[in-house]
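Entry 14. Two folds queued back to back today. First construct below, sequence then C-alpha cells.
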Amino acid sequence: MPKKILLPIEKVVNENTENEKIVVEDETFVIKKAKFIQLTKLMSTVTDIVKEVKTNEDLNGLFSAFSQEVDREDEEAVRKAEMDIISKGVEAFPTLAIKLPEQALEILSTLSRIDKEVLEEQELENILEVYDAVLEENNIQEIIERAKKSLALTTSKFNFKGLAEKAAAGQA
C-alpha cells in the first residue's frame, strides 16, 4: 500500500506588498512503487554518478584509499592508512559535498515523485522519512533479481547469436 508523507511547504503570500509573509502549509505526498519511466531516469542519474567517480581523480584516490589492504596488527600502517583516507577525503570533499548530493536528491525526487525543489527545502529528518518510504515501497533487490530473471529468460528463448548468423548468411 502506498505510503503517505506529510512535508511542510513554505509559501509567500502577498508578495511584494507590506503584508508579505511566509506561511507554512503541510502537504501530503504519496510514495508509490516506481514505474518504468522512473527507473529509466534513475539509471541515467546512476550512470552520471559512475562517470563522475571514474573521471574524478580525487574520488578515485579516496576509493582506492578505502580499498587498500592494511595489516591490522601494524599500528603504524593502520595510522598511515587512516591519514591517507582523511587526506583523500579532504581532496574529494568539493565533489562529495556539491556534485553527489545534488544527484542523490535527483534520485530521491525521481523515485518519490516529489519535486527536487521541495526536497531541497526540507530538514534532514524529512528527507530521511521520504528515503525510507521510497525503500519500503520499492524493493530494489527484488527489482534487480526480477530483471535478471527476465533477461535470462529472454536470452534462452531468443538465440540472438543464431539470429545474427542467419541474417549474415542470408545477406552473403
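Second construct, same run, same settings:
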Amino acid sequence: MAMVTYVLIGGYALLIGLASLLQWKEKGYQLRTMLFIILSLSMFLTIQLPYKEWLLNLLIVEFILLHVVTVAEGLYTKKQLTYSHHIIRFVFHCILLIMVSKFTK
C-alpha cells in the first residue's frame, strides 16, 4: 500500500513538473509556472523524508498550496473556474491523503 501511494504521489508530481516546464517553454517565465515547479519538487522531496510523521502534514500543506495556485491560474487565464476539474483534483488529493494516513500511523 505504501509503495502504491509513493508511486501515485511521485507520478502526480512528475506530471505537474513536466506540464509546468512545457508551459514555461511555450509562454516564457511566469511566477505561477515557477510555483508549480517548486510545488512539484517539494512533493518529490516530501516523499523522500525519513520522518513519516511529517509526511502527512507536509502533503496537506502542499495540496492546499497546489489548489490555491491552480485556482489563481484558472482565474487569471480563463477568467473563470472549471469546477468539475477542481472537484476531481480535490477528491484525488483526499484519496492520496487517506492512503498516506493509513501507513503513517
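Quick look at the second one. The chain is about 85% helix and 0% strand. The chain has a mean pLDDT of 88.
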